[in-house]
């Protein structure tokens, strides 16, 4: 499926999950200005939006549909936000807000994690662009990316945290 077909499918999913439910639409539109779907993860959709309470700051929202998961999955989702708020590192995105502890980000059907939007895209997208342009990576570029990744992983390990989903599609450059 081409990228436009994938985007259209994700847009439809976002509208079905969030905007077509009146309570959700009101909850969402009071707090955010929708900007587009970024992707779909294991827990739900990730969209870009302007966060009104923060002066229309451009953010990435992870939307978690509570009806699709058991209580333990909800705890894991909120734990991700709490951990990234507590442990700060220059190569780890910090969650700006997490529900349900912050009621503003907790609606009847969804939980929301708010992260800064990284404009550069994922490492996977960057690699695909480079390969499509037939441009090789210099050893120094690879060393810099791997160095940042190892630095973040060491920090997590030093704090007894194991990240089990490290892949080029989940991280920035």
Describe the structure.
The chain has 173 residues and is of the alpha+beta class. The protein folds into 2 domains: 114 residues, Phosphorylase Kinase, domain 1 (2-Layer Sandwich), CATH 3.30.200; 54 residues, no CATH class. It has a 5-stranded antiparallel sheet with strand order 1-2-3-5-4. A hairpin with a 5-residue loop joins strand 2 and strand 3. The longest helix has 20 residues. The protein is globular.
Mean pLDDT metric:
79
The main sheet orders its strands as: 1-2-3-5-4
- Percent of sequence in beta strands: 15-25%
Q: What is the CA-CA span between the terminal residues? A: 25 Å
Topology, element by element:
Layout (H helix, E strand, L loop, with lengths): L2 H17 L2 H10 E9 L3 E8 L5 E9 L5 H16 L10 E2 L11 E7 L6 H10 L6 H20 L15
Antiparallel strand pairs: 1-2, 2-3, 3-5, 4-5
Give me some keywords for this one.
single chain, alpha+beta, Phosphorylase Kinase, domain 1
Task: Provide a quick synopsis of the model.
The chain has 173 residues and is of the alpha+beta class.
């Amino acid at each position: 499926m081409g990228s436009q077909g994938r985007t259209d499918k994700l847009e439809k999913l976002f509208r079905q999950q969030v905007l077509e439910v009146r309570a959700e639409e009101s909850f969402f539109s009071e707090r955010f200005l929708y900007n587009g779907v970024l992707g779909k993860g294991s827990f739900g959709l990730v969209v870009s939006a302007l966060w009104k309470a923060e002066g229309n700051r451009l953010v990435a929202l992870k939307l978690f549909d509570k009806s699709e998961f058991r209580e333990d999955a909800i705890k894991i989702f909120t734990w991700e936000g709490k951990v990234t708020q507590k442990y700060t590192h220059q190569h780890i995105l910090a969650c700006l807000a997490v529900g349900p502890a912050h009621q503003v980000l907790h609606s009847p059907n969804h939980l929301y994690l708010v992260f800064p939007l990284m404009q550069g895209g994922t490492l996977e997208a960057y690699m695909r662009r480079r390969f499509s342009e037939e441009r090789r990576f210099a050893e120094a570029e690879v060393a810099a990316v791997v160095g940042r990744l190892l630095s973040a992983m060491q920090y997590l390990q030093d704090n007894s945290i194991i990240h089990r989903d490290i892949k080029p599609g989940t991280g920035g450059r």
